[in-house]
Design brief:
CATH architecture of the largest domain: Beta Barrel
Low-confidence stretches: 1-41, 46-62, 64-72, 277-290
Shape: globular
Helix content: under 10%
Number of strands: 33
CATH class of the largest domain: Mainly Beta
Number of domains: 2
CATH topology of the largest domain: Lipocalin
Radius of gyration: 20 Å
Structural class: mainly beta
Mean pLDDT: 76
């Protein structure tokens, strides 16, 4: 993500901002795959491989969404110590809502939300300004902790570990390690266009950027590279010495889930699915791609595909356990808790049984992002809502059809 020309505050009218926010959601949802979801058999690597071939998968039956009773209102969720953070792109505001009631705690003009969303972690707001500089604010009173040098106007916080913040800038192909206490840059990895979110585990930083890379967290020096995942869909998951990462090719629409040895990047298995077609008219000619978004829980890889299907795969072999297709395209990264899998799709939030993929409930409201805590599901786009994870009943709602809101996370109060 290259530096962009500075735009004066208030450069768009509220109507224009709403239109841009709605177009952003439509580009994610409506420009998804026109091809059906294709399922394939996992391929086990018999020897260390640093190059994976991408082949179409054979079609198999897919479980589809069924009509379920609409949930009704219920009691208040027991989340008194958590705050839900929401960005309203109509006026560049960051909102803090009480997790157990949806009550507005405060609103703060953050700036530059149409370019990159802010992030909240450990009681601190991190936001990239119009000039590319990075600021850190206390959530308690929004006071400035520090302002850092420009990392690029598209830089966003990916993760934090051991007092270090990791920012990615896809347009300029950079990964930054930033000291959380004062914002100083510790090291930088460059030359990685289309870099995705990162994961830190056991002193190693893993990320996808055309290929999959592992670098030392201490200084950013390279450890290994796996060529084959192309554009990564979500942060890698590192479990018991295995790196699970999803990715694909925006031009062919092929995508898959990969299992790699954390020690050397050797391919263990991969599972190919249909992704989304390229959008060559998006972003000044840059392709738009939505590959699988994976989570790994209790020996199972759950992957939501841009082709509109969620898959459950055995983590040790990649064998398909079940698959489910909601009533629409685009599936968010699955959230898994206490035997339930929660996914956001074009037609709403779906709750599935983790063991067999059977639907339990559906809430008919589209959600661009999805979070879960203590069996409470938070989601939304034009409004923010909290749902009972067991029944789908609505705890609370905030906003309306003109809010153009993005849920960015939950954090301790």
């Amino acid at each position: 993500m290259l530096d962009k020309a500075e735009k004066p505050r208030g450069w768009l009218s509220s109507t224009s901002r709403l239109r841009m926010a709605l177009v952003a959601l439509l580009l994610v949802i409506l420009l998804t795959a026109s091809v059906g979801a294709l399922l394939g058999r996992p391929r086990l690597a018999t020897q260390r491989s640093q190059t994976a071939t991408m082949t179409p998968a054979a079609a198999q039956p897919t479980q589809t969404a069924t009509a379920l009773p609409e949930p009704t209102n219920t009691s208040t969720p027991p989340l008194t110590d958590l705050t839900v953070y929401v960005v309203s792109q109509l006026d560049d505001s960051l909102l803090a809502l009480q997790a157990n009631s949806g009550k507005l705690l405060w609103s703060y003009k953050i700036g530059n939300t149409l370019s990159v969303l802010p992030a909240v972690a450990n009681g601190v707001i991190y936001a990239t300004q119009d000039d590319g500089s990075l600021i850190a604010l206390r959530t308690s009173d929004r006071s400035l902790l520090w302002r850092s040098m420009s990392l690029g106007s598209d830089s966003s916080l990916s993760t934090a570990a051991d007092g270090v913040l990791y920012f990615v800038s896809p347009l300029n192909g950079s990964l930054y390690a930033v000291r959380a206490s004062d914002g100083s840059v510790l090291w930088r990895v460059t030359g990685k266009p289309q870099i995705s979110a990162v994961t830190v585990a056991n002193g190693v930083v893993y990320f996808g950027a055309g290929s999959v890379y592992a670098v030392r967290a201490s200084d950013g020096s390279a450890l290994w590279t796996f060529q084959g995942a192309m554009e990564a869909g979500s942060p890698p998951s590192v479990v018991q010495g295995v790196v699970y990462i999803s990715g694909g090719d925006s031009f062919s629409g092929l995508s898959g889930v990969y299992a790699l040895r954390a020690s050397d990047g050797g391919l263990l298995w991969d599972y190919q699915v249909a992704g989304t077609p390229a959008c060559h008219a998006c972003g000044g000619g840059s392709p738009m791609y939505t590959g699988p978004l994976q989570s790994v829980v209790d020996g199972v890889v759950y992957a939501g595909s841009g082709g509109g299907v969620v898959y459950a795969l055995r983590a040790n072999t990649g064998a398909l356990l079940w698959n489910y297709q909601p009533g629409g395209l685009f599936v968010t990264r699955p959230r898994v808790d206490q035997g339930m899998v929660y996914i956001g799709a074009e037609d709403g939030i779906h709750a599935l049984r983790a063991d067999n993929g059977n639907p339990v409930w559906v809430y008919r409201s589209p959600s661009g992002t999805l979070f879960e805590a203590d069996q409470v599901v938070f989601g939304g786009f034009q409004q923010v809502f909290a749902l009972d994870g067991t029944t789908g009943a609505v705890f609370w709602q905030y906003g309306g059809s003109i809010m153009a809101a993005w849920l960015i996370g939950i954090d301790s109060m």
